[in-house]
Amino acid sequence: MPADEDHQDAPPIDWRALLRQLPLLNILGVVAVLVAATLVVVKNLPDHGADQLLNVSYDPTRELYNVVDGTFTKQYKDKTGKTIEIKRTNGGSAPAGP
């Protein structure tokens, strides 16, 4: 007798009854692992945005860093092929404190 004929008389699987037999904590554990694995994969997907740098300097050097940042951005693009965005913040030049 072929193996397929043995299973023809088997009753169909009642998935609802099977799921009722599993403890709720097991189901929640599997769901938690799937959610965690999904989050890890999504977090590690490559970001295709531009690289960024923050240039923090004093106000008197603003013009100098306009030139330096522009030159560096061009050299970085030529060397790596990647675009880089340089953000700047310039503090005041007044003395701090009395």
Automatic annotation (TrEMBL):
Write the gene name: sbp
Q: Which organism is it from?
A: Mycobacteroides abscessus 1948
UniProt superkingdom? Bacteria
**Spans traversing the lipid bilayer:** 24-42
UniProt KW keywords: Membrane, Transmembrane, Transmembrane helix
Q: What is this protein called?
A: Small basic domain protein
